[in-house]
Amino acid sequence: MKRLLPVVLLASLVCAPAMAHHSRAAFALNETIPMKVKITRVRWSNPHVFWAGTVVNDKGVAEEWTFEGHSISGLVRQGWTANTLKVGDEVQFFVNPHKDRTKHFALVDRVVFADGRVLYSVGVPPQNAVASRPKIEPSKDFSGNWRYKFPGTAEEVRKRVLLGAGGPDLNLPYTAKGKAQAVAWNANDNPQLSCGPISLPALIMTVYEYKWIRHPDRIEIQKEQYIDADRVIWLNRTKPPADYKPDPLGFSVGRFEPDGTLVVETTGFSPVKWGNAPGVDSGPRKRIVERYKLIDGGMAMSVSYTLEDPDYFTAPVTGQGTYTKSADSEFAKQPPCDLSAAREHLNYE
Fold first, then answer.
1. By C-alpha distance, which of 72, 69, 82, 77 is closest to 162?
2. Of 60, 69, 194, 303, whose CB neighbour count within 10 A is largest?
3. Which domains, ranges and CATH numbers included, belong to the chain?
4. Single pTM value for the model
């Protein structure tokens, strides 16, 4: 086996929110204020849901505001549907306002309805407000629903996800080409703001759940919320078929080691903008090796990867983390990515 060069920990890759659609840093996340809103528009859209509404300010003047909510997946898990809020409804929003108070744009923490019901958006519900969940069953063969475990309290994780991880780590072993891209990083160049594809390794450790489905010849991995991000790990092949065409997710083959560890090698990538890290593209020579192992009696799964891309890095880079088992469930259906929704926040910069 070819010996690998010394590895370097790629911290910015294990923090998946770096590849989210945009950071919510423009909002005052430590401040939550109430606003009485009459809904004038509902956009049940991917990647984020938006509402518009009329707010009467303290001088009695009606103002039009735009409110950003969670993703469809996140809202559905909190009990929302596309018809929960309708044009003409009058409700109370609790929001994180924009730091620039001249901008009528806010992030919805939760909504209080006329009948007293409370539904959360990006806020963290108190423990006694969370409805009972289905029992979580351990996995015996990697199958089932999983969630990447971000460290910290619920509120710390919330802020980390909302803020993202910022730009790339400038101390990684970049080639000249990779270093130039990392230095030139600009958050508004994120390809997902144009509904571009996500690639590995960002997809390995990101928000939202994974659903692993085990078949005799393959493992299918469905990804909640993300469009065109489902994977197949082939267990009966060692290389792509002759007619394979390069893809942002590559072609994955897997094998099991004697201790039960699943080793996945992925090659055959197409070039992807920001495919290696925020600001750093990936090339056709990219190769990723992932390792998965069930731990804690099947209630968790360790995950690690080694990334090689000689067009952008002079040495392999690695990441590691943990998945925790979730209650098995189906994911909410997603509409196509809405370009205007992906870029809505740019109207308020």
1. 69
2. 69
3. 8-22+137-343 (no CATH), 33-121 (2.40.50.140)
4. 0.91
Cα distance between residue 64 and residue 66, in whole Å: 7
Contact 197, 8 (CB under 8 A): no
- Identity of the amino acid at 3: R
* Per-residue tens of pLDDT for the chain, all 349 residues: 333 333 333 333 333 334 456 789 999 999 999 999 999 999 999 999 999 999 999 999 999 999 999 999 999 999 999 999 999 999 999 999 999 999 999 999 999 999 999 999 999 888 766 556 789 999 999 999 999 999 888 888 888 888 876 899 999 999 999 999 999 999 999 999 999 999 999 999 999 999 999 999 999 999 999 989 999 999 999 999 999 999 999 999 999 999 999 999 999 999 999 999 999 999 999 999 999 999 999 999 999 999 999 999 999 999 999 999 999 999 998 899 999 999 999 999 8
